[in-house]
Specification:
Residues 1-61 are annotated as: Disordered. The protein is mainly α. Helices cover 79% and strands 0% of the residues. It has helices at residues 3-25, 29-53. Helix 1 runs antiparallel to helix 2 (29-53).
Length: 61
């Protein structure tokens, strides 16, 4: 995986973790759900980029 892709993936994972922590701190259940969903999508995207960056173009089975 290139340094650029690896750095971007790390940033995305860090942001996802920050969103999860923020979701745990808010008192509004709807806002918490929204933040957790955003974190989940970001985590999925980081996993896709990590897979593509490693040269593995075939989806996991």
């Amino acid at each position: 995986m290139s340094d650029e892709v690896g750095g971007r993936v790390r940033q995305m994972r860090q942001k996802a973790e920050e969103l999860k922590q923020a979701a745990d701190r808010v008192s509004d259940p709807e806002e918490s759900r929204r933040l957790k969903e955003k974190a989940r999508r970001l985590q999925e995207q980081s996993e896709q980029e990590s897979t593509m960056g490693s040269g593995d173009i075939y989806p996991m089975e």
